[in-house]
Amino acid sequence: MIKKMTLTALASSVFLFSPTLFADSELKQSVYEDNGRLIELFEHFHANPEIGFMEFESAKIIANELKQLGFEVHEGIARTGVAAVLKNGEGPTVMFRADMDALPVKEETNLPYKSTNPTKDRFGNPIYAMHACGHDAHMTWLLGMAKQLAEAKEKWSGTVVLIAQPAEELIMGATAMAKDGLFNKVPVPDILIAGHVHPLLPEGSVSISDGRRMAGTDRLTYSFKVSVVMVQHLMSPKIPL
User: Fold this and answer.
1) HEC letters along 1-27
2) Residue 211, CB half-sphere, CA atoms under 13 Å: how many?
3) pTM score above 0.90
4) If we measure between CA atoms, which residue out of 177, 176, 146, 181 comes closest to residue 70?
5) What's the chain's Rg over C-alpha atoms?
6) Spatial separation of the C-alpha atoms in residues 46 and 61, rounded to whole Å
7) Given this model, what pLDDT does residue 123 score?
8) Which mean pLDDT values do the consecutive 10-residue runs of the chain (241 residues) have?
9) 83: nearest Cα among 101, 68, 96, 69
10) Residue 230, pLDDT score
């Protein structure tokens, strides 16, 4: 009989891609074999960014992928949020959250899959957007994890809950999903994993810490004292200043 690892350990293994957690060589191989699909998903998400509460296409892709994997999927939570549940016997309930929204930034990279077309904000205004905060990667992680969990059910037991959250950049999406009845649709987790890319960590490494991390914003107010000297140039005709 195959010894089942805990759901927490399996989810962490799939998410973190850490060799120390990959006790199962078949799982490791399966993850690497899925790289092609995941790269396509990542590049599509990056090329088609959507602003907070307008992540309709991203949410549709995520919901469809999860349905095909056998998850119980709930859509339209707080407008665009998606929640998916996969039950697999007794055990802990583990939730993984990926944010979906992009930033209102015009992309000026040379990537072959760069974002080029303007989108709209939730008020209907045309706006450029870019996945400059890594949410394209976060959505890809969620779908990669979902595939491994769905195809390796003999190796774990418990319940997995996957959340695709809108409007993280607006600091509104999580609260909006909770107020819109998220936990009437999915069970309250024993543990919540909310990963984020980090530019200061070396490629291929992972930093782990419990508690709240990267969950706040600060505002800085600057006051400038400027002395301005205006000199009238000799012009023809002269323009009075």
Assistant:
1) CCCCEEHHHHHHHHHHCCCCCCCCHHH
2) 3
3) no
4) 146
5) 22
6) 13
7) 94
8) 45 45 72 94 98 98 98 98 97 96 96 95 95 96 96 94 97 97 98 90 82 70 70 51 45
9) 96
10) 57
d(CA 11, CA 18): 11
As a three-state string, the secondary structure of 22-56 is: CCCHHHHHHHHHCHHHHHHHHHHHHHCCCCCCCCH
Q: How far is CA 60 from CA 71, 100, 129, 164, in A?
A: 14, 11, 19, 10
Q: Which tokens hold the place of 98? A: 């990926």
Whole-number Cα distances in Å, 43 to 18, 56, 114, 132, 233: 23, 17, 8, 13, 53
Q: What DSSP line would sit under 86-128, residue for residue?
A: EEESSS-EEEEEEE---BS-------TT---S-EE-TTS-EE-
The amino acid present at 126, given as its one-letter code, is: P
Instruction: Pull the structure tokens for residue 180.
Output: 């819109």
Alpha-carbon distance of 144 to 152, in angstroms, equals 13
Please report the pLDDT score of residue 204 as a whole number: 75
3-state secondary structure of 161: strand
- Phi, psi (degrees; rounded to nearest 5) at 160: -110, 135
Chain CA centroid to CA 50, Å: 12
Cα gap 215→131, rounded to integer Å = 18
Query: Which DSSP helix (H) or strand (E) runs through 136?
Result: helix 135-151
